[in-house]
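Standup notes
- DV: blocked on the single-chain target, sequence here:
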Amino acid sequence: MNEVNNTLFIPLYGKSQLSRRGIILNDPMAEKICSSEQFPIRGRSASKWLAFNMAMRARVFDDWTDAMLSEYPDAVVLHIGCGLDSRCLRVGSCSNWIDCDFPDVIDIRRKYYTENEHYHMMCVNAADPGQVRTLPDHDTAIVVLEGISMYLSPQELHAFLQTLQEKYAHVHILMDIYTAFGAKASARKNPVNDVGVTTVYGIDDIESILCGLHIRHKAEHFFTPPALIRELKPLERLIFRLLFTGKMYRRIYRLLELETAGDD
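- DV (later): unblocked, structure below
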């Protein structure tokens, strides 16, 4: 796999570690895949603090997806850049779930996941509008963009969102982003450097990406809810809060919810 695809093992490792401890995230599939694939996790990627952060991020995305499915039970869920993630198993039932990634990633997924009438896998490059247009037609789409936006240039991200709004009458999106400062800082300190990724993109003004679209910025969410932090041991809580909460962390990394204008 190429360097960007190799980044999928970093959050997978984090989720497996916390699942083994029985806190924050119940993810036996992550445990199984990590044991089977044995992809080497080194340096910053193996940090237990990053593992906490990756598991919390996944849990926040899970809870949001669950909430959206409760509100829109007939929607199609599009997990773009799904990697080897098992969100399709962790959240509530969904009648139409599509996991999307590059062909070599989907090839590995097929070793662990089985398609059925409610669950499918597709080879889709989010940077290619033509491939995005091959996604199944539907009225409402719940779109999960976890750990993906930073690998798309602003132009590619705008084109991706434009294609979604052209294809679906109602779009609900949750995506994490680097700020421009965060992208610059990642050149030296980002764990993805450990797997060879050197180019990521940051966004300071989401409105510049949404310009001309009928998609609006609805809300900002937190990666580190207090209830999840309380699952850590007391000393871990203290150190984790210093590393991953507060104004400095928000200067680097943010979590945004978008939706089609008028979909309140």
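- Follow-up: The domain at 55-260 is CATH 3.40.50.150 (Rossmann fold).
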